[in-house]
Every structure is written in structure tokens, then in C-alpha cells.
């Protein structure tokens, strides 16, 4: 298999494995992979993190046309029990320098809430954004903060749900900040945007792992 090669600043052409059904779309999907990387480079440049995206985030990519095959590959990649059942909406992951995703068609069918302009490119960018987040923290994944925050960061970086962003109510904000369960990514987006307008994102990243993070954030909001 050929190795990845640099295509531009922070953008790499990587080996892409596809099932036969997706081979006719290879060129389009390769361009989507490049677009996802460019999206994260642009985001990183805005916040002074350009140096953190110069090295590639993944060495290969694979796209699946059957959700069950994707799930099986993820379970093997992450060393999970073979009985693990992944959510229907779980559509992409970047682990061990491998980017894996379901096809654009499966993504649209299984996650209707995520359908928007460039939604598949944004899905891939979302996974790359998680890796950028970890680099910002010098590799300390344990400092990424609560689920709503690290998912909100990736959503924000990938520009997902940008057209449907709305101001959350005080109740919604407090519910998101206090919950340890996974919830709506759209609500995560709304809450992250709300605080990003009040607190610098680098500041939030530095504070996210602290126990007083919710109270600290609420101190910037008149709720």
C-alpha cells in the first residue's frame, strides 16, 4: 500500500480503502478527505494552532458501504468485546491513525439530523478535530473535559449545524452542563456557541478538565 504524501500545509493524500460499490466515487471521496483536512487547518489558523496541524493526523482511511462491517472494524480497532453494539448514528472514528467512516449514503440515512451542506466532509473533519484537541493538550486525552465540551469543540471546528445554531435557554444550558450522559449534538453545538461568544476557546480548553468547569462557565453568563 502506498504511503501518505503531503498535498499542502496540513493536508495529506492518504491511502483510501473502498468497497467495490464505492470505487466509482473514489475521486470525489478523495477530494472530500482533502476538504476535511483543509477545514481543520483553517480553524487551527484562526486560533494560533497552525503548527499543530502540520503533521498528518492519519495514515490511511477506509469507507464502508455496510454499517455492520464498519461496526465490526471499529470493535476490532479499539479492542472492544465482540458483543459490543454501536449506535446506529455512530458513523466515523479516527483511532490509531486510521480514519474509518460509513459511506455518505449511510451517514445521511442513519443520522438525518446531521444532513446539511458538506455534511460528509464535516463528519470527517469532526473526527480530525478531536485529534487536534488532544494535540492542543499535549497528548493528554484525559483533559478534554466533559462530553458536551469535547464534542462541542469538534462540532464547532468542523462547522457542523452552523445554519441551525440557536440560542439555548437557561434551562437547556444548565441541563447540558450538569449531565454526564451523551445527548443531542445539536444542543452541544448551541451551548458551545453560546459560551464561545463569551469566553475564548483556548481558555475553555485549559479549564475544561477542572471540577468547577460548569460553575466557571456560568460565571460568564447572565442566566
List the helices and strands and how they pair.
Blueprint: E1 5-8, E2 11-13, E3 16-17, H1 26-46, E4 60-64, H2 67-77, E5 92-95, E6 98-102, H3 104-110, H4 119-136, H5 147-158, H6 170-178, H7 185-196, H8 201-207, H9 213-218
Parallel strand pairs: 3-4, 4-6
Antiparallel strand pairs: 1-2, 5-6
Helix pairs in contact: 1-4, 4-5, 5-7
Offer a few descriptive terms.
223 residues, alpha/beta, 2 domains, four-stranded mixed beta sheet, two-stranded antiparallel ribbon, 9 helices
Structure description:
With 223 residues, this protein is of the alpha/beta class. The protein has two domains: 136 residues; 84 residues, no CATH class. Helix content is 46%, strand content 10%. The chain has nine helices and six strands; from the N terminus they run E-E-E-H-E-H-E-E-H-H-H-H-H-H-H. The strands form two sheets. It has a four-stranded mixed sheet with strand order 3-4-6-5. It has a two-stranded antiparallel sheet with strand order 1-2. Helix 1 links the parallel strand 3 and strand 4. Helix 1 packs across helix 4, helix 4 packs across helix 5 and helix 5 packs across helix 7. The radius of gyration is 18 Å and the shape is globular. The N and C termini lie far apart (55 Å).
